[in-house]
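Supplementary Note 3. Input sequence used for the single-chain structure prediction.
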Amino acid sequence: MPSTTKRLSIRAYARYRGVSHSAVRKAIAKGRITAVDDGIDPVQADREWEANTDVAKRTVVGSRSAVQQTKTTSASRPRPASPQSARAPSDTSSPSATYSQSRGVRETYLARLAKVDYEERIRKLVDADQMRVAQFNAARKARDILISVPSRIAPLVVGMTEAAEVERILDVEIRRVCAEIAEATKL
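The predicted structure, written as discrete structure tokens, is reproduced below.
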């Protein structure tokens, strides 16, 4: 369906967009916007420009599109702390996925990988298999220490008739075992 808007020259469209005429020429050459012999349809070209231009290179400081984009999208920006930001980016395998959507998904995954790499380097993240082995070994050592308590205490309390003395010996041994377990389970 052809547009009824007045067509603009490359330089006029560049002024309209707030970019250089060479940026418009490059966009035409790369196929990001379409131009015909009688000029550029600004409405169609704006849609194509937004859909086909790399987000990182999209706006020029002070350009018409940057000012317009700030006015129209500042209130509708998603908050970074929302639960949706923790989810995986949307699927871009459909043919209608634009370059900017695909680039956004790629950048999100690269940022996540960089975060994991950073946290591993500062020792905030550890290998899960190593942690399981260390936890198993600590629990095994604690079990062995606890199992040995009766065989160490039995000869000491075998002939005692005073309950207070038996309790004191048990208390000392249990505290010693707890300290030994705490020392053995330090990671």
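Helices lie at 10-17, 21-29, 42-52, 64-73, 99-121, 128-147, 149-157, 163-184. Confidence is low (pLDDT under 50) at residues 69-86.
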